[in-house]
Amino acid sequence: MATAHDMLAFIAASPSPFHCVAEGARRLAAAGYRAVDEGEPLPALEPGAGFYVERGGTLIAWRGGARSPSAAGFRILGAHTDSPNLRIKPRVESTSEGYVRWAVEPYGGLIVATWADRDLGLSGRVALRGADGLETRLVRVDRPIARIPNLAIHLNREVNEKGLTLNKQTHLPPVVALAGAAHPSAELFVSLLARELDVAPEQLLAWDLMLHDVTPPTLGGVHDEFIFSARLDNQASSYCALEALLALEDHVPEATSVIMLFDHEECGSLSERGASSALGPQLLRRVMGAHAAHDGGSLSQAMTRSLMVSADMAHAVHPAYAERHEPEHKPRINAGPVIKHNVNTRYATDAVVAARFKLACADVGAPVQEFVNRSDLTCGSTIGAISAANLACPTVDVGCAMLSMHSIREQAGAADVAWMQQAMTRVLRDG
Q1: Cβ atoms of 388 and 382 closer than 8 Å
Q2: Are 60 and 242 in contact (CB under 8 A)?
Q3: What pLDDT shows up at residue 47?
Q4: Tell me, which fold does domain 85-213 have in CATH?
Q5: What is the pTM of this model?
Q6: What's the CATH number of domain 2-83+230-430, 3.40.50.300, 3.40.630.10, 3.40.1190.20, 3.10.290.10?
Q7: Rg of the chain (C-alpha set)
């Protein structure tokens, strides 16, 4: 349960991908890892030495192995920091029927209706004109400043029979204030940011901001066996990967250990810091060159001796919709890590990498489950297949079972967190 509680603290600190990276970097620095400027030469990598780089919502960290990567390979844990949500548009405010509303755009495949009638805060990063030029700063407003009000049933009599359908353009802009002389709408948003950052309004230039649910993550269920939280997909996996790396402590495996926590998975990974970018391969080549035991070997050589675990949350069987699952592949919450399979390579798993992950789970006493999508339903995807293709690295797709995926509040199992983290640590140590 200590691991589950710590994960709740990690997610609570991470209302946006940028905050998730900041929290990860804070934990790495506290454990002795050193921040690296991507634009500078990488420091020499001695066995056991740890470094990390931050690029927006992406965090990559590595720890030197006892042997060169070309001889022993890499052990890579991959996940993503972003989650479906509502992003703030550049031109923010409008008034309608006496209310001030903010223009928002859906990010990723969110379940839109779950965002109605929730208390919403604001988080992300802001670019501004500072004393020494352009600056970026994180901002977080945790008080409930925005809300998307539902229409009363008296005015929508068929909502319970036909379901709640919200138009993404006209219905999703949240109400943030009453319009009027005391609240000039053109100034509300900028004034709020200026106060939060303690800067003049004219210093604000642009922003990557989003709404988030202000209800804290918590344990739930009669026996506290569940986790109820926003952003479990996929900050739960990011947490497990980070803590698996930190759990190596003084142990120095032969292989160099790496975690890659990418941004933008929920919208396709196609960005300068997403899993589809050259960021991962480029950085691994540089890590190889900085390794104290570097022998002139190539990245392609190292990849033949490497393994990547791509961790993204998995679909638990739903008690009310069990027919949506393949009959013999129904993962359950708190029944162990899930290995995800798809013969059309939406997941990267094959028999060899599945077997290697099963052995890691067996070594730490973690049960293993397997997931295959129904053949008549479209399969989702992860960073696994993308990273496997970019790196030519054997990759297994895994995840913790959960319900309510892509809802504003999601549900997973408290016991599964420790099992996943322990299995990942085993992969880094000996996998």
Answers
A1: no
A2: no
A3: 97
A4: Aminopeptidase i, Domain 2 (2.30.250)
A5: 0.97
A6: 3.40.630.10
A7: 22
